[in-house]
Amino acid sequence: MADDTDVLVPQIHEDQLPGSEAKLEPKPEWQPRYKGSGRLQDKVAIITGADSGIGRAVAALFAREGADVAILYLCEHEDAEKTREIVEGEGRRAITIAGDIGSKEFCEQAVQQTIDAFGRLDILVNNAGEQHPDKDVRDITEEQLRRTFQTNIFGMFFMTQAARPHLKKGAAIINCTSVTMYKGSPDLLDYSSTKGAITAFTRSLAKNLVKDGIRVNAVAPGPIWTPLNPFGGQPPEDVKDFGKDSPMGRPGQPNEVAPSFLFLACDDASYMTGQVLHPDGGESTSS
Questions:
Q1: Rounded to an integer, what distance in angstroms lies between the CA atom of residue 261 and that of residue 76?
Q2: CB neighbours of residue 38 within 10 Å
Q3: Which SUPFAM superfamilies does the entry mention (predicted)?
Q4: DSSP conformation letters of 260-285
């Protein structure tokens, strides 16, 4: 059996992923659109991939609604510090934890750091992911295939296993799947496969934890303007038209996705588990 080192390298990929939001133009819109109402007052959330993109927008909105946030990220330190400043600017506490969620040991350490810092854990947002475009299935290397599954689905298992002892009745887990799970993607075969696994994981885990009063749901974004696509998640020639083929004719912004995570995290969604929300500009309904 291969050890973690064999499976997990390289952390920084030749296609520039995970990508820097600080270097991205135009900048994604992460800013919450409305005043907070205390829907997550004094809760504690772990958000993976919270340094940029959807994760940053979720962290900002959770903080505005009263939550303290553990910001997990891979290697984009400048972006993570910006997210920390955003959370603290909302009057909440934040910690940044760098590492690879594809490592079970890291996930256990990250959860323990969160407990040590904040004393509790109420919400786990499994958002981090990676994607690599390939037009021919034969071009997907074994290393890439293992790496994509390691991050996108193994990482969710590892984070959930580490968090589980600390999640009490009323806690929430929200996973990030994708419109590609529903529509498929000819150029993202390994990525879309992991997103199908995430949806099945969400529905199964929801049934597993429902008797303990822990809700498990997911969000399936469509094309959202984040560092993921322009820094290697899409072929360079496709980036200029990213999202334009959606029914709304444009990519979505992270702050258009974050409210779905907030809804599923708070008591507004107290009768929802095993469900998936679709902030995708109509993508999942188009042929």
A1: 23
A2: 10
A3: NAD(P)-binding Rossmann-fold domains (SSF51735)
A4: HHHHHHSGGGTT--S-EE--STTGGG
Three-class SS state of 157 = helix
Of 118, 129, 140, 141, nearest to 74 by C-alpha is 129
Q: Which residues contact 139 (CB under 8 A, 6 or more apart)?
A: none
Give the start-to-end residue ranges of the domains of the chain: 38-223+253-281
pLDDT at 13: 47
pLDDT of residue 20: 72
> Considering the domain 38-223+253-281 in this protein, what is its CATH number?
3.40.50.720
Question: In this structure, what token pair is assigned to residue 152?
Answer: 């996108």
CA distance 45 to 222: 24
State which amino acid sits at residue 42: D
Measure the CA–CA gap between 86 and 92, rounded to whole angstroms. Answer: 9
Cβ atoms of 216 and 265 within 8 Å: the answer is no
How far is Cα 55 from Cα 32, in angstroms, rounded to an integer? Answer: 13
Question: With contact defined as beta carbons under 8 Å apart, do 147 and 134 qualify?
Answer: no
Residue 119: how many other CB atoms lie within 10 Å: 10
Note if 34 is an active site residue: no
Read off the pLDDT of each residue in 276-284 and give the average, rounded to a whole number: 93
Q: Does 190 score more than 70 pLDDT?
A: yes
Q: Tell me how far apart the alpha carbons of residues 140 and 134 are, in angstroms, rounded to a whole number.
A: 7
- Exposure string of 149-158, with b = 16+ CB inside 10 Å and e = fewer, is bbbbbbbbbb
Structure tokens at 178: 């994708």
